Amino acid sequence: MKTKNILSILILIGFMSCSKEFTDLSPISERNTGSFFTTANDMEVAVNGVYNSLLSQGVYNEAIWIMNDLRSDNSFWTGGGLALAIIRYDDFEETTTDYVGRDAWIAHYEGIGRANIVLDKIEDIEMDTSQKNRLIGETLFLRSLLYYNLATTFGNVPLILEATKSVSDGDDHAQVPATQVYNQIVTDLTDAESKLPSSASKGGRATSGAAAALLGKVYLTIGDKSNAASALKRVSGYSLVDNYADLWGVANEFNKESIFEVSYESGYGSLGNLFTSALNAELAITVTSGSRNWPDPSLIAAYEDGDTRKDATVKGLGDEGIDWAGGNGYCIKYGTVNSSTDNDGPNNWVVLRYADVLLMLAEAIGESDESYGYINQVRARAGLGAISASTPGTFSEKLLNERKVELAYEGHRWPDLKRFGVAASVMSSIGVDIKGRLNLAIPQREMDINSSFTQNPGY
């Protein structure tokens, strides 16, 4: 699919992802776009369409956990049939035509296309200034999040910042270095942070805290630790939930630690998630059949004795004699409540939370009493004692392990391994050769259409 086709005017469902409300909206292709984008309410609906893009199978419903957790030392996949395509990603044997990378590329650019339409139209709409600023800020945040995912997944990608006027306007979009994408994200998130409110009137809306948290993550990715620390210290109004287990489940959505999460709702067809049963082997056995996403033995070994996060993250299929090394375990973060279908889970996907911010702050500051203070806040909540410079291991090793057990199955592990520069060595330690594939392949259909594209190493 041509990038310009991906960025054409798309169907907006009108689902208000942040509040789990929805309204009927006919496909935007059936409307005169010039007459549709005329009111403040039109823009609210359009921004809801950008939020809705995050629910896609190519974004948080499936692609993110495959690319960032399954493809790491956190878990592995077994089974056959259609699952063989997923196993190839786990084994770093995926092809340029496999569906996960293709769907991720398409879905992310669809969301970016929706965001670009909003930003193209909104300046000419008469509305309250604070409402306009909020909508612009939310859209810039969402576009930044989508571009962050693309850059950390594919590396050099097209950077499109304007709405495509039609599917036949002849625009061609070249790859740009990932650093250029990150620099644009920094610009957009800085603007978004200044426009967004500090708290959301409805759960799931982007806030200034969400913009600052993502900005800090991007600064860390490009190696600017000073600006990362400044951004992360501006994330305020959040605190750790007392019990780690209370972070998860429908009853705990939008808690005091949550900074930004993607909202799913079962019972409405396409609004439920499929990652619940994909990650939870117990559900997979009852909902569909076959083996699923098992915790890697290295993840189990990373938990210290007494770490309360372990029992809130993974569980064995049997009550006794659990053989973790043999794959008898599964993720329970996203629930154990069975759903009637394989893709209709009600649990939200948490993109950013305060524990991540504390650990990123420690990373940005470097080894010091202050940084250990941030790490030890997270450890104390897990029932563990404090660590310090005298604790065995390098600072990076200790911090990376803390992130591994704190953020398991939340879509952070592969970007963490890349950012710390240890992806190849960590995977080698569990017997996996990444074959030079730090980034996913540019989908073959994009390579075929765009002769100027350069394929990533290893493919």
What keyword list fits this structure?
459 residues; mainly alpha; two-stranded antiparallel sheet; two-stranded antiparallel ribbon; 10 strands; globular; disordered N terminus
How would you explain this protein's 3D organization?
This protein is mainly alpha-helical. About 45% of the residues lie in helices and about 5% in strands. The chain is built from 21 helices and ten strands. It has helices at about 5, 35, 40-55, 55-60, 65-70, 85-90, 100-120, 130-155, 180-195, 210-220, 225-235, 275-280, 280-285, 295-300, 310-315, 355-365, 370-380, 395-405, 415-420, 425-430, 445-450, and strands spanning about 15, 20, 75, 155-160, 175, 260, 295, 315, 330, 350-355. It has a two-stranded antiparallel sheet. A two-stranded antiparallel sheet has the order 3-7. A hairpin with a 4-residue loop joins strand 1 and strand 2. Helix 10 (about 210-220) runs parallel beside helix 16 (about 355-365). It is globular, with a radius of gyration of 21 Å.
Which regions contain 5 or more consecutive residues with pLDDT less than 50? 1-31, 166-170
Q: Beta-strand percentage?
A: 5-15%
**Overall mean pLDDT:** 86
The profile of the biggest β sheet is: 2 strands, antiparallel
Radius of gyration: 21 Å
Count of helical stretches:
21
- N-to-C CA distance: 20 Å
The coarse overall form would be: globular
- Structural class label: mainly alpha
Report the helical percentage.
40-55%
Produce the secondary structure layout.
Blueprint: H1 3-6, E1 15-16, E2 21-22, H2 33-36, H3 40-53, H4 57-61, H5 63-70, E3 75-77, H6 84-90, H7 99-121, H8 129-154, E4 157-158, E5 175-176, H9 178-195, H10 208-221, H11 225-233, E6 258-262, H12 275-279, H13 281-287, E7 293-295, H14 297-302, H15 308-313, E8 314-316, E9 329-331, E10 349-353, H16 354-365, H17 369-381, H18 395-406, H19 413-419, H20 423-429, H21 444-449
Antiparallel strand pairs: 1-2, 3-7, 4-5, 6-10, 8-9
